[in-house]
Amino acid sequence: MTKRSRVHQSTPENERAILEAALTLAVTAGYEGTTMAEVARLSGLPTGSVYWHFNNKEQLFAELIEYCFGKWKEDHTGPTNRDLLRRSIAGSAGGSTDPENKAEAFWILALLFALEKRLADNAARKKYLDVRRQMFELMVQRVEPQIPGSVLAADPDFGRKMVVLGRALTDGFYIAASAGDDIDFMEFADLSASAVEALIARRAAMAEGEVEK
Amino acid sequence: MTKRSRVHQSTPENERAILEAALTLAVTAGYEGTTMAEVARLSGLPTGSVYWHFNNKEQLFAELIEYCFGKWKEDHTGPTNRDLLRRSIAGSAGGSTDPENKAEAFWILALLFALEKRLADNAARKKYLDVRRQMFELMVQRVEPQIPGSVLAADPDFGRKMVVLGRALTDGFYIAASAGDDIDFMEFADLSASAVEALIARRAAMAEGEVEK
DNA sequence: GTCTATAAATCGATAGAC
DNA sequence: GTCTATCGATTTATAGAC
């Protein structure tokens, strides 16, 4: 309930206002669709001020990605439970419809940076790919303890593989949500988790039942 | 005046050249990143001719989606085998890197339209969402015969659910390919197929183990 | 049907007063 | 640091000769 206090002055008030304005617009309008003029208007500052705080549009979005990554990390701390993948996929539904959960919805926009290779030299795309790697490593640390030791002994990379699979599923359901597919995300969160669990169980049986490959 | 008629002729030469040029550019540059001037240049025609054949950019992309859907359907006819999902995911690796395989690369363009909600009123996005539904139904027809009868008896929608899951995986691995994730797509194609098979096996065991319900 | 030239609008970014 | 005014580049789309 109590949000983590943001007493640090690292992000001044006006910069935060600009970032929040950019986030609100970006979630519904995307990268190209968000204009600096509109960011300025929504933040209550003139365009000149926006360019004083951020060098250009690229850098604004790069810092926006960092800003949202900070929010994501807040949501992914604390004790690990077995519902990691289930909650990730279930969250994809709300991310596209719930206007309050902007940080969640932003990852749909982030996927655009992955797809738009035209932005290869774009600072924002580079930042997203960097954050994507960091998210992956954080997820590996949370998932690996849940893999049976016998499976990891037979295949030390199995935890990483499950994270790759889980990320593909999460990204895929983000797309489904964005496309407006009429599906029950809670049900598919369960189904996906079951599929991964079945895979792990199969591997565990294999690892214990067989000495050779 | 007289609009072109496709009754007697299918996609005249110059229109095809324009569509192919648009596809080549769109796959790497996206919707906004593809300019009509560049489409004209690559097709070898001036911009005026492009606008004579297609009313505007929206309609050009809408017809491009239809055009690519035709290619996709050609690749998804014939006998169904068990490797449907495996091949879809394995294809995602080449789809984003091999410029020749434009029918597969089209998937990336499609994902762009799925994600860009700003284009909600865009004719091209509407066309894509329509095509997305058609693709889904075609996949259901191919997948359902592979589901054990006992599972379908217990859950008539199980085939559709597997297609939703398969589509999420395929979309997710396309993003992984676009993001440049350093993964072995062949391995994850196998792993994904295994996960789905394990899920079906688990359901089959469940369906046969219970007589009632 | 093809092509050139250009209109009309938008957007990112800057200059400079305060 | 804030704000106004505006530049320069880009892009969609059209007009009109051939």
UniProtKB/TrEMBL annotation, chains A, B:
Signal peptide: none annotated. Residues 12-72 form the HTH tetR-type domain. The keyword Protease does not apply. Pfam families: TetR_N. SUPFAM superfamilies: Homeodomain-like. Keywords: DNA-binding, Transcription, Transcription regulation. Residues 35-54 bind DNA. This is TetR/AcrR family transcriptional regulator.
